[in-house]
Amino acid sequence: MDAPTVNTSTRDWHDGVRSKAARLERAAALAVGKRVEAPQTTALLECILEPGDRVCIEGNNQKQADFLAASLVHTDPARVHDLHLVQSVLALPEHMELIERGQVSRIDFSFSGPQAGRLARLVERGKIRIGAIHTYLELFARYFIDLTPNVSLIAAQAADTAGNLYTGPNTEDTPAIVEATAFKNGIVIAQVNEVLDTLPRVDIPADWVDFVVPAPRPHYIEPLFTRDPAQITEIQILMAMIAIKGVYAEYGVTRLNHGIGFDTAAIELLLPTYGESLGLRGKICTHWAVNPHPTLMPAIEAGFVQSIHCFGSEVGMERYIAARPDVFFTGRDGSLRSNRAFCQAAGHYACDLFIGSTLQIDLEGNSSTATRGRIAGFGGAPNMGSDARGRRHASETWLRAGREARRHKAMPRGQKLVVQIVETFREHMTPTFVERLDAWDFVQSANMDVPPVMIYGEDLTHIITEEGIANLLLCDTPEERKQAIRGIAGYTPVGLARDVRMVENLRDRGVIRRPEDIGVARREATRDLLAARSVKDLVLASGGLYEPPTRFRNW
Amino acid sequence: MEQLQFQVPSRAQSQRRDAVLVGVVGSGNCEVLLEATTADAMCVATIHTAAHGFADIWRRVIEDFAIRRNAGGLRVEINDVGATPAVVTLRLYQAIEAWESGDA
């Protein structure tokens, strides 16, 4: 048999280099050096983009390349069409308008938050095809394999005249996006809030940037992680007490990630009070992969926290962070350096516990935030909320969870604690516990390969509700697991269908633990236990360094 | 406004004392009042609820409470202000913890 022959003699291996050169040539007249003025931005995009391009419009959890997104909406659909958006967050109305205008044919993303309803309708009308919904880390990974952007539209705080970029505290996704684009013949266009002679620090070198556009307005940043302590309920305080005493203290959790929400905010605000009263300072919650939640400040000030690495920043926290460089990762300029890719890796591999909330949990412990009419995506939760199968270093917490899970197995290994903290009912008496996740409906309506599950039951180790803790590690059979979940599902239909005797047996074995079983007194579950009861209290806790966004100022 | 009444067996509460009130209805908060009765083996509950159609859930909430705690000889009055079972259960336990500790 002949060896396969490949004719390489006619190929010069520089298609990508030539394509980039041609695009830059078309745009040359619009730029002075790398600088393009704002009114020329739409023309620039029409020169650079080609049908079929993979495009990242930097849409992070917080920072948005909103001026470039708006300029893209103004391009001529006859010239700019069939784009394939590859970006972590589809949060802006402009992202949806591009789809409405028929300029985007496919999207691969992670999270759609505020646009979840509109996106679901566009999918139902057949206006857009979803490649897949990813985790952040997963989408970044694909940037380097099969979803490399041809063009990336990014956002930075400032540029210098050479084109070096300063992102400020919200570095977020920028390094991952630019690395993938710039080193594979792609084009990087940055919108900046200002042009300076000298940058406070360099986050992205000029060599990786093709165009800089001074934007007419500073880019939008969403204060996504601010929770007003005034809205924390006694149920959330009770569940926070259960989490601290029944999980954090029990397993000695020092390295962790907190999901977003009032439930975890309550835990943060109970550390200096309830946690201190249990003698837990220095023993739990010392090292974090987490955004700079304002509700963490009382715990930091009380000496609970040694180190925090951040996915992004949070509006208003800048001065406080800059004043606490022992805790946060900061640059030479003193301000926060965040990095979503690295922090996701840290949360996955170097943390022993993830705790977060969800909208639905089924009887296998699968949880999902996809509910009827909303395609919200996952963000980072699946990477935080999954056992790191590639992990090889041990910690006491990891070993203890592993021992509980692997009683009958010969090879010892640990396991990450993955905890869902939920009330049994959400608003309007909607049960959190369900027989069947709404996620199943998306397999048909959005033509998905698998239901969009945020955290798989096999990764979930504990569920906390106001009824207590279900320790799924200790369940021996699938039926026990179901009854353990029913046993803390309260008065939802799933909870009411519990086998009372089996649930009592699980309680005797410590699979289910009620508040009274772990010495949590419900009488203590009052708002007096919060280390801060208002945003104003948070400002006071920060020594006046925290500057909350206007919408959170009510005094 | 719906008014529900349940009478369920429960182990006798040994503490005798004045009524206990937790929660403040005036601030939109579920309110629970406990008072002593002479029916030692029974917990008698009256629920004033804004939401209709949840009688079965309230019955289970009261039954569980009567099984898990010594609520015989107590009359329970609940003004739920549309509270979830979670809040009602929390108030019930807060009330009986207060009752048993002897605090006001």
Protein topology:
The complex is a heterodimer of chains A (555) and B (104).
Chain A: H1 15-27, H2 41-48, E1 54-57, E2 63-64, H3 66-73, E3 83-89, H4 93-100, E4 104-111, H5 116-124, E5 129-133, H6 136-143, E6 151-159, E7 165-166, H7 174-182, E8 187-195, E9 211-214, E10 220-221, H8 234-251, E11 255-258, H9 262-277, E12 287-289, H10 297-301, E13 307-309, H11 318-322, H12 340-349, E14 353-356, E15 360-361, E16 367-368, H13 381-384, H14 396-405, E17 417-421, H15 439-445, E18 462-465, E19 468-471, H16 478-487, H17 493-496, H18 500-508, E20 512-513, H19 535-541
Helix pairs in contact in A: 1-2, 2-3, 3-4, 8-9, 16-18
Chain B: E1 2-9, E2 20-22, E3 31-36, E4 42-49, H1 55-68, E5 74-79, H2 85-101
Parallel strand pairs in B: 4-5
Antiparallel strand pairs in B: 1-4, 2-3, 3-5
* Secondary structure tally, helices of chain B: 2
Q: Low-confidence spans of chain B: pLDDT under 50, at least 5 residues?
A: none
Uncertain spans of chain A: none
The overall average pLDDT of chain B, rounded, is: 89
Secondary structure tally: strands of chain A: 20
Computed structural class of chain A = alpha/beta
- Roughly how many Å apart are the termini of chain B? 29 Å
Helix amount of chain A: 25-40%
How would you characterize the overall build of this protein?
The complex is a heterodimer of chains A (555) and B (104). With 555 residues, chain A is α/β, with parallel strands linked by helices. Chain A has helices at residues 15-27, 41-48, 66-73, 93-100, 116-124, 136-143, 174-182, 234-251, 262-277, 297-301, 318-322, 340-349, 381-384, 396-405, 439-445, 478-487, 493-496, 500-508, 535-541, and strands at 54-57, 63-64, 83-89, 104-111, 129-133, 151-159, 165-166, 187-195, 211-214, 220-221, 255-258, 287-289, 307-309, 353-356, 360-361, 367-368, 417-421, 462-465, 468-471, 512-513. The radius of gyration of chain A is 25 Å and the shape is globular. The mean pLDDT of chain A is 95. Chain B is of the alpha+beta class and 104 residues long. Chain B has helices spanning 55-68, 85-101; strands spanning 2-9, 20-22, 31-36, 42-49, 74-79. Chain B has a five-stranded mixed β-sheet, with helices on one face. In chain B, a hairpin with an 8-residue loop joins strand 2 and strand 3. In chain B, helix 1 (55-68) packs parallel to helix 2. Chain B is globular. Chain B starts with a strand and ends with a helix.
